[in-house]
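hey can u run this one w/ zinc ion bound, need the structure tokens asap thx
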Amino acid sequence: MVKFDLLITGGHVIDPATGVDKHADVAVRAGRIASIDENIPADSASTVIDAHDQLVTPGLIDLHTHVYWGATFWGVRADPIASRSGVTTFVDAGSAGAYTLSGFREFIIKPADVRIYALLNISVLGLVAHVHELEQIDHCDTAMFLKVAHLYREIIAGVKVRMERRTVGTNGLEPLRRARLVAEECGIPVMVHIAESPPSLPEVLGLMKPGDILTHCFTGQNMKIVDEKGKLLDAAKRAWDSGVVMDIGHGRGSFSYETAEALAGAGLWPDVISTDLHQFSISGPMFDLPTCLSKLLNLGMPLRQVIRSVTQRPAEVLGLQHEIGSLAPGRRADITLLRLEEGRFTFHDNFGIRREGRQMLRSTLTIVDGRPMPTLAADPLPPWIELTPLQVRLIQEGYAPKFSVSPDVQRALIDRG
Ligand SMILES: [Zn+2]
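ok here u go:
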């Protein structure tokens, strides 16, 4: 008897939230997880997907992305990237401000096949341009933030503020103080971006609360969380111990092997692995979420913890752990199939440092609400994006995962090379 819409058979299911880590079949009905069991009969489902030799995990949640495509400097389109990378939920980190959030809901969230939430920028401008959104303090309009946040509460996951020299200008810590104020009022966390001081990292951490997110936590820039000898700073340890969430946000300039290896040497792994996916970072060496996961895996982070950092943990950070981030029956049927390949692979950080590894995670199928996504090609780059010499070299040398860089860009570079 046909009881299920979809059945995924024979895969290695890893669901850190429930502790499931075994070969099992996953059945879906009406967009929800219906059952996880051994040997569910194939004729009980209208569609069957064979997942032998693959990992079956909850749909991956990318906590730091920029998907306000077509209206901001950084934004990429979510669906094509989701279809190739296993991401089923994108959290957009501050692309929309109060003036542009309604457009984000109408033109991006509503038409998308994937789930999208917003960290609303404390600047009413959002990230329409490259930098400078916090330089005029009047743009950090708390009253306007609250009005808009109350209108669109269902899509807002938190507040975003970029604390670094190039964005705050002479305003120092004031944008963060205001972000904390509205976060308190709304009962949501603040995601704080760090890069180049001023302000200093201890000053920034001093204003953060448990549940807030420090993104770019493995940066190699001068707000890094380790000292010159690679030891975790006291201020960072206090914040981490108190419950501040450490999030990778790889991006174009925020993943350093020097920092990552110092922390790995001390057995310290990030709470959340995210991409900081945007028009600069998709052409490498970030490329996509499975590539980021592979980097941590090859540094020694246990596979189950890697999966936890993109499923259970970000779901908890968002307060959505009863809906997504797990394959427990009743949860939304967001499911990712991954292949864990063994071989010799080369990875790069944002400073051109390369490391060899023996394992690579690749996404093979993205399922949202029980519906497998067709694979969609990458978009061409917008006119204002120029690839860096490192990106050109990595693409020419064949390090870009299949499909992650637009076919136009790949062809142009290969012709030139
Ligand atoms: Zn970002």
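The mean pLDDT is 95. anyway lmk if its weird
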